[in-house]
């Protein structure tokens, strides 16, 4: 049975932008698995069959699994014959670190800087939900959150320096070939690429070279959605 993947979209279902959903898209492609995407806006997420209230969610036969990392573990354990997403327990532990680092250091900036771009990409009902929920989360209007995020974009350069140093020795976070750790950081920059007009990386940045390489992986699936115009 083909895996069903629930992905977040805005008013244009051809432009899924969730960083967490992109992690799973890349993981499925890495494993060489077939899947069908079911696109859902913010206000439809609570109606997804597993009741978790988050995306991504997959239905894999009788199993439903939510959360990108849990989905990656599920794919790794149920399809052991396919290419590994972790390369063993050490790679799984490394991916846990990359996930925590990315959430606290990278998403924390992009999420604020891109907040109005996300809002503007949504249908009206979802815009109202998004504004109410995010203004409650950040304690300020979306417009002010965006300005604070844009003022912090310069911090990304320093926060990415460990990745640049690593890429001097190997082409991927996973080493000679990509692992789920790569897809975690890829998801963050794919989110920004699809939703934001402001470039986050300089043209001579090794992280940009790595990201461009990731866009071409698995038949160029990352490039299937164009960048924000």
Give a brief outline of the structure.
With 229 residues, the chain is α+β, with helices and mostly antiparallel strands.
Key attributes of the depicted protein:
four-stranded mixed beta sheet; Thioredoxin-like_sf; transferase; alpha+beta; Glutathione_S-Trfase_N; GST_UstS-like_C; transferase activity
Walk me through this protein's architecture.
GO terms for molecular function: transferase activity. It comes from Georhizobium profundi. Pfam families: GST_C_7, GST_N_2. Keywords: Transferase. InterPro entries: Glutathione-S-Trfase_C_sf, Glutathione_S-Trfase_N, GST_UstS-like_C, Thioredoxin-like_sf. Helix content is 53%, strand content 9%. By secondary structure, it is an alpha+beta fold. Helix 3 crosses helix 6 (142-151). Strands 2-1-3-4 form a four-stranded mixed beta sheet, covered by helices on one side. The protein folds into two domains: 3-78, Glutaredoxin (3-Layer(aba) Sandwich); 89-221, Glutathione S-transferase Yfyf (Class Pi), Chain A, domain 2, CATH 1.20.1050.10. The protein has helices spanning 19-30, 68-78, 89-113, 115-120, 124-138, 142-151, 154-159, 161-167, 180-195, 206-215, 217-220, and strands at 3-8, 35-40, 57-60, 63-66. It is built from eleven helices and four strands, in the order E-H-E-E-E-H-H-H-H-H-H-H-H-H-H. The longest helix is centred in the middle third of the chain and has 25 residues, at 89-113. Strand 1 (3-8), helix 1 (19-30) and strand 2 form a beta-alpha-beta unit.
């Amino acid at each position: 049975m083909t895996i069903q993947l629930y992905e977040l979209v805005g008013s244009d279902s051809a432009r899924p932008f969730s960083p967490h959903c992109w992690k799973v898209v890349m993981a499925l492609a890495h494993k060489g698995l077939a899947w069908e995407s079911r696109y859902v806006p913010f206000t439809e997420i609570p109606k997804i069959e597993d009741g978790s209230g988050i995306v991504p969610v997959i239905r894999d036969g009788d199993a439903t699994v939510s959360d990108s990392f849990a989905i990656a573990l599920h794919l790794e354990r149920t399809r052991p014959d396919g290419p590994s997403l972790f390369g063993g327990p050490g790679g799984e532990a490394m991916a846990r670190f990359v996930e925590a680092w990315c959430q606290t250091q990278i998403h924390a900036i992009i999420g604020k800087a891109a907040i109005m771009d996300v809002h503007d990409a949504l249908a009206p009902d979802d815009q109202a939900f998004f504004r109410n929920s995010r203004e409650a989360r950040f304690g300020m209007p979306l417009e002010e959150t965006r300005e604070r995020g844009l003022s912090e974009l310069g911090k990304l350069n320093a926060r990415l320096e460990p990745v640049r140093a690593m890429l001097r020795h190997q082409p991927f976070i996973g080493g000679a070939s990509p692992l789920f750790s790569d897809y975690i950081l890829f998801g963050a920059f794919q989110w920004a690429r699809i939703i934001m007009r402001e470039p986050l990386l300089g043209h001579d940045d090794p992280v940009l070279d790595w990201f461009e390489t990731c866009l071409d992986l698995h038949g160029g699936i990352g490039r299937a959605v164009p960048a924000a115009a």
